[in-house]
């Protein structure tokens, strides 16, 4: 039985611009750690080869240090690594791969397929048919040649490609780098290892997207996996097992605050956030000042715990109650200003009014504390 | 607050002290001349309250020139029903003591209490300044400060506002101003106060963001260039590989070689064609020569005919020319004869004319000669007379002046004689009949008288001699002068050769007549012979000679005169005509001769040429040569035909070859090969260059850097957005707060405005004074001549501002009083700029105010305040006894 570890879309060097620099650094770092985990998993499961279906790098021109670091991360698995370039790291006339060659960064156990030529791994008696991207985008199916590729009798035929399987992925409509839906069938492949789609996804019994081993966006699509593929013999359907490889949990959450218990639930949810959570929280509805203070405190605490917590409060209104105002001792014209701002929250520049109101409340609060 | 007593000691000019006692709870008027110490009293009150007793900056309180003194002020006043006594000493003895209803406070404690009580502050160190003075600073008007109200109000704003808010109760927001200033401060962290432009951190963030986004754009540009180059490299490689595989340059080279071969062949043919054409040309030339020879043979026969014909013609011409010649000769003879005849006639006519002329001339000469000879005789006669005259004249020439002198001398002599006779001694004698006397030898008898002009001797016969000498020198001098003049006269007469004046005058008349005649003669001579007698004589001679010559000439004339006389003009005209004709005929004759000789020459030439031509035609070898010529021509023609055929064949071939096109092909292919090779080389170079470039660019990690930059930019953008949101929120908040506060202020000011209007009605009915937010008067509105006038407070006249300043303070005092604050008003020489009517109104105002407040008025114009309704107190009267003694001014 042959075992393969199928992975893709490492996107090494990916920036995380929407995050604070310290968070972004950790998220970038996590991608190297994911590769190291993959190597460990490969060793652990005693696979015959690791197939990497493109987009190893997020960009062509990454720093030398990044390059070395990535290839060093492969050291945990001494067996063969088979890689093809994807659209982010296509084998152009000058590419990250050429640089890696020049820098002598490529380890000996790495089989880099820059040309569409069969790669025969004799130890496992399997032939990898690679469809490397030599342009950033192509509108022809680079896996066409698999159909006619001759392989030794008895050897497993494994396809390795990067692109959009036609007709399956909604986002892939009219997208470049197309791959025929029935490629595995037509080319008599025992397994087609696909890359480009960041979630783990089964196309058919022999065709799978592995997804990225470490999530990199707020999209619940089974990212953070690698596939363990077990092949008994040519012609027999493979067994595919999903392995967890991701560390960070990316979540996007929208909460509407209407009644007091909504806030309680939210606070509880926030309380549960941990160091591996990367969260985008959208808040709607309205709050009184006391609740707003509680929320601010809770958000502050959660930010300290979560890897990243971004909160969008554009659609959140402040509704100070009579008690709030009493507590703030906002009498006279200051009280009138509060009333005006509160009303204005519903208007065209509502967010500004809300901010102004929050600011005023904060100042009044501050003053009250000082007096007390 | 009611001040009841003030005592000052060792304070400025009050060395020994002054005391104001029993102060009125309302109006108090203190007067005194300048330097009396009014302002010093005010200063004492201020020092007692404002200056710390410990202060070392109060040297100015010391009397001049004294050290070691302790200026001291003691005040007693009542406030809120309690009695206060404040005693403060400075410098030498620093002390402060405050009694409140008998309870005693000292030092700083006392000062603190006073400060809070009156609503002012004290400096932590140094002298007290205006900003510390608060309410007293506003209500205690210093000399010349009444119109300067704004700073004083600013320093008391808090207290005033406090008073207003207290009166309004809950309307104001608690700590609203503090809140506003807090918001302002927060806003100022992000935006400039005036224009609301980003500043500080916000501005930095925006700039940084812009800088980053520029950097990012640059990096993007670089990356884009990098990608283009990668694509370029891929394209070059593909082309390079295709060239290597397909080797198009080799095919091109083969085609080039083939074309070059073709071109060489075509060139060879062209050369041959040129050779053949040259040969054909040579043959053609030979044929041309042969034909010319044959033609020359034919021409010989023709030439003989031509010559003969020419000879016939020239012979005919000769004959006609000769005939013409003979005719012209005859004509010439004819004309010549006629002309000779006419010549003869002409000569005769001319001689005839000359004779007539000569005769005429001789006649005229005769006349002239005759005339001149007559004149000559006249001239000579006149000349003789003239000579006579000259002679006459020359013998007795007497000048008119001489005659005049003679006349004068004679007149003088007569006068002298008369004088002498008058002066002479008269000898009147009457002698006896026989008496005889002798006077100077003259015997005198009878009766008579004699005038004795000089000494005389009178002989009296028988008696002796009487010697009479006339008296007086005059007579003798007269005698001398008479003598002298007589001598002179005689001399002159002698010189003129006359014996008397009469004679001289006669001579002068005669002489004048002669002169007149001579002048007439001269005129006659000038008329007869203007050029002189000699000239006249010569004229006569010349004419006589000419006459002789002419007579001789006339005698020489051969022809006789004949009748009738020939008409010379007609004869001359005929002669001239004949002369012309002769010349014409002669000319024609000469032409005819010329023609005849030319015709003769032509005739000779034609004859000779005819002979030559005939000789040639009859030469013996001519026939043989003619035959040979015909034969040669035929041969050459045949040869030419063959040659032309060859040329045509060659041309056809060359036309098919199109060597120029082949040459172009060669050039084109050659260039193509070169281009191809160059392109190949260039591409190889470009590839190498690109590879190197991309290697180095790739090593820069452009996209990773871009990623970092993009991340930083995104973060900064978020930051900017946050700051902007905050700024906008602060803006909004501030705007709202200020707006509300503004409205509130207006409401707040209402009570103050009410007080102001009470006074203003007294001073300027219907006027309105607007206040700014700081409660200071800002503008005045009143009915004017042209409707409502509205003006800035600062633009008002000094006097008006002063008055407004005072009533504003009174209004503040009312306000403070209502709020339970102590009020004491001090006017030090205020309102000095008010006119009489305004001052009268102000007095009403002050009197009204004094019903609510205590007022201390200091003035150096007691008469101006006489109707204030309060007794003045003269400061000099209040000074302690002995003051004058210790004052050292």
Automatic annotation (TrEMBL), chain A:
InterPro entries xrefs: Calcineurin-like_PHP, DNA_Repair-Maintenance_Comp, Metallo-depent_PP-like, Mre11_N, UCP033093_metalloPase
Pfam families, alphabetized: Metallophos (PF00149)
Keywords tagged on the record: Exonuclease, Hydrolase, Nuclease
Transmembrane segments: none
Membrane found in the keyword field: no
Top-level taxon: Bacteria
Gene3D superfamilies: 3.60.21.10
GO molecular function: exonuclease activity
Start and end residues of each Calcineurin-like phosphoesterase domain: 2-218
Identification of the protein by name: Metallophosphatase
Organism: Halotalea alkalilenta
Lineage of source species: Bacteria, Pseudomonadati, Pseudomonadota, Gammaproteobacteria, Oceanospirillales
TrEMBL record, chain B:
InterPro entries: P-loop_NTPase, YhaN_AAA
A single GO molecular function term of this UniProt record: ATP hydrolysis activity
Annotated coiled-coil segments of the chain: 202-276, 332-382, 533-602, 633-747
Recorded superkingdom: Bacteria
All residue ranges annotated as the YhaN AAA domain in the record: 1-56
Keyword annotations from UniProtKB, A to Z: Coiled coil
Gene3D superfamilies: P-loop containing nucleotide triphosphate hydrolases
UniProt GO BP: double-strand break repair
Listed name of the protein: YhaN AAA domain-containing protein
């Amino acid at each position: 039985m042959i075992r393969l570890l199928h992975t893709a879309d490492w996107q090494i060097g990916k920036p995380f611009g929407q995050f604070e620099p310290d968070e972004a650094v950790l998220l970038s770092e996590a991608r190297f750690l994911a590769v190291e985990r993959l190597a460990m998993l490969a060793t652990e499961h005693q696979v015959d080869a690791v197939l990497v279906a493109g987009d190893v790098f997020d960009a062509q021109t990454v720093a030398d240090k990044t390059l070395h670091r990535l290839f060093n991360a492969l050291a945990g698995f001494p067996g063969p690594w088979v890689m093809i370039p994807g659209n982010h790291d296509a084998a152009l006339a000058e590419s990250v791969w050429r640089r890696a060659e020049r820098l002598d960064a490529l380890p000996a156990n790495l089989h880099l397929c820059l040309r569409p030529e069969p790669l025969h791994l004799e130890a496992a008696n399997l032939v990898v048919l690679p469809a490397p991207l030599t342009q950033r985008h192509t509108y022809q199916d680079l896996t066409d040649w698999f159909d006619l590729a001759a392989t030794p009798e008895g050897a497993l035929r494994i396809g390795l490609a990067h692109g959009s399987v036609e007709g399956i992925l909604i986002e892939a409509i009219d997208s470049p780098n197309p791959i025929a839906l029935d490629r595995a069938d037509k080319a008599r492949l025992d397994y087609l290892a696909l890359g480009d789609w960041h979630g783990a996804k089964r196309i058919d019994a022999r065709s799978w997207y592995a997804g990225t081993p470490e999530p990199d966006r707020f999209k619940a699509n089974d990212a953070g996996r690698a596939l363990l593929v077990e092949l008994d013999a040519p012609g027999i359907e493979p067994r595919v097992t999903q392995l967890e490889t991701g560390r960070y949990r990316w979540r996007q959450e929208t909460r509407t605050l209407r009644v007091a218990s909504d806030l309680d639930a939210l606070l509880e949810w926030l309380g549960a956030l941990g160091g591996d959570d990367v969260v985008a929280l959208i808040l709607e509805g309205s709050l009184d000042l006391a609740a707003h203070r509680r929320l601010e405190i809770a958000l502050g605490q959660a930010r300290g715990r979560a890897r990243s917590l971004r909160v969008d409060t554009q659609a959140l209104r402040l509704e100070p109650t009579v008690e709030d105002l009493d507590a703030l001792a906002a009498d006279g014209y200051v009280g009138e200003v509060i009333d005006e701002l509160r009303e204005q929250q519903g208007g065209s520049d509502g967010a500004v009014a809300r901010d102004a109101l929050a600011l005023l409340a904060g100042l009044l609060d501050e003053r009250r504390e000082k007096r007390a | 607050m009611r001040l009841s007593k003030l005592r000052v000691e060792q304070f400025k000019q009050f060395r020994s002290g002054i005391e104001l006692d029993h102060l009125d709870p309302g109006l108090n008027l203190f007067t005194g001349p300048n330097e009396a110490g009014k302002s010093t009293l005010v200063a004492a009150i201020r020092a007692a309250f404002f200056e710390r007793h410990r202060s070392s900056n109060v040297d100015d309180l010391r009397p001049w020139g004294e050290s070691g003194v302790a200026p001291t002020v003691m005040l007693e006043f009542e406030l809120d029903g309690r009695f206060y006594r404040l005693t403060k000493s400075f410098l030498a003895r620093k002390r402060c003591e405050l009694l409140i209803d008998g309870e005693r406070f000292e030092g700083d404690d006392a000062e603190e209490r006073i400060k809070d009580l009156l609503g002012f502050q004290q400096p932590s160190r140094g002298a007290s300044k205006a900003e510390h003075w608060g309410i007293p600073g506003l209500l205690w008007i210093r000399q010349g400060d009444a119109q300067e109200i704004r700073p004083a109000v600013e320093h008391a704003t808090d207290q005033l506002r406090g008073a207003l808010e207290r009166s309004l109760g809950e309307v104001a927001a608690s700590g609203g101003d503090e809140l506003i200033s807090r918001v302002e401060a927060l806003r100022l962290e992000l935006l400039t106060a005036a224009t609301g432009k980003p500043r500080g951190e916000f501005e930095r963030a925006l700039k940084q963001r812009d800088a980053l986004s520029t950097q990012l754009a640059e990096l993007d540009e670089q990356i884009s260039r990098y990608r283009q180059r990668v694509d370029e490299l891929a394209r070059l490689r593909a082309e390079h590989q295709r060239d290597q595989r397909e080797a198009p340059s080799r095919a091109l080279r083969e085609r080039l070689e083939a074309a070059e071969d073709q071109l060489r062949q075509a060139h060879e043919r062209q050369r041959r064609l040129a050779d053949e054409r040259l040969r054909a040309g040579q043959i053609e030339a030979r044929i041309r020569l042969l034909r010319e020879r044959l033609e020359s043979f034919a021409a010989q026969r023709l030439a003989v005919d031509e010559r003969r014909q020419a000879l016939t013609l020239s012979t005919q011409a000769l004959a006609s020319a000769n005939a013409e010649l003979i005719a012209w000769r005859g004509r010439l003879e004819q004309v010549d004869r006629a002309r000779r005849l006419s010549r003869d006639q002409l000569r005769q006519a001319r001689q005839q004319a000359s004779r007539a002329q000569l005769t005429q001339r001789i006649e005229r000469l005769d006349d002239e000669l005759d005339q001149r000879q007559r004149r000559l005789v006249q001239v000579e006669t006149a000349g003789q007379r003239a000579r006579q005259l000259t002679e006459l004249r020359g013998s007795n020439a007497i000048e008119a002046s001489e005659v005049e002198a003679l006349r004068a001398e004679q007149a003088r002599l007569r006068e002298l004689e008369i004088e002498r006779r008058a002066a002479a001694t008269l000898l009147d004698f009457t002698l006896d009949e026989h008496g005889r006397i002798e006077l100077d030898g003259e015997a005198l008898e009878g009766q008579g008288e004699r005038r004795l002009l000089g000494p005389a001797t009178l002989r009296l016969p028988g008696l002796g001699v009487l010697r009479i000498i006339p008296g007086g020198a005059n007579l003798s001098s007269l005698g001398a002068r008479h003598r002298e003049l007589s001598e002179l006269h005689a001399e002159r007469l002698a010189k003129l050769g006359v014996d008397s004046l009469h004679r001289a005058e006669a001579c002068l008349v005669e002489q004048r007549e002669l002169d007149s005649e001579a002048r007439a003669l001269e005129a006659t001579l000038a008329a007869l012979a203007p050029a002189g007698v000699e000239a006249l004589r010569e004229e006569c001679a010349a004419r006589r000679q000419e006459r002789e010559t002419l007579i001789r000439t006339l005698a020489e004339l051969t022809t006789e005169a004949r009748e009738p006389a020939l008409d010379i003009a007609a004869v001359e005209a005929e002669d001239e005509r004949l002369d012309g004709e002769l010349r014409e005929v002669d000319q024609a004759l000469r032409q005819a001769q010329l023609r005849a000789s030319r015709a003769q020459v032509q005739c000779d030439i034609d004859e000779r040429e005819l002979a030559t031509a005939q000789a040639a035609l009859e030469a013996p070898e001519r026939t043989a040569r003619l035959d040979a010529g015909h034969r040669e021509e035929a041969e050459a023609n045949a040869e030419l035909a063959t040659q032309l055929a060859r040329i045509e064949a060659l041309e056809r071939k060359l036309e098919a070859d199109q060597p120029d096109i082949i040459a172009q092909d060669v050039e084109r292919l050659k260039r193509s090969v070169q281009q191809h090779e160059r392109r190949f080389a260039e591409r190889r170079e470009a590839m190498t260059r690109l590879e190197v470039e991309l290697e180095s660019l790739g090593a820069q990690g452009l996209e990773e850097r871009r990623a970092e930059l993009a991340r930083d930019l995104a973060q900064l953008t978020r930051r900017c957005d946050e700051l902007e949101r905050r700024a906008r929120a602060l803006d909004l908040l501030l705007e709202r707060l200020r707006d509300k506060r503004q409205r509130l202020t207006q409401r707040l000011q209402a009570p103050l405005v009410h007080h102001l209007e009470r006074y203003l009605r007294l001073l300027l009915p219907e006027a309105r004074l607007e206040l700014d937010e700081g409660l200071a008067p800002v503008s005045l509105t009143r009915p004017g001549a042209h409707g409502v006038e509205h003006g800035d407070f600062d633009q008002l006249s000094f006097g008006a501002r002063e008055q407004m300043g005072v009533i504003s303070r009174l209004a503040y005092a009312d306000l403070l009083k209502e709020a339970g604050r102590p009020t004491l008003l001090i006017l030090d020489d205020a309102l000095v700029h008010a006119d009489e009517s305004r001052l009268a109104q102000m007095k009403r105002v002050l009197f009204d105010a004094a019903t609510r407040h205590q007022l201390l008025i200091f003035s150096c114009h007691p008469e101006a305040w006489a109707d204030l309704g309060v007794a003045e107190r003269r400061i000099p009267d209040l000074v302690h006894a002995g003051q004058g003694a210790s004052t050292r001014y």
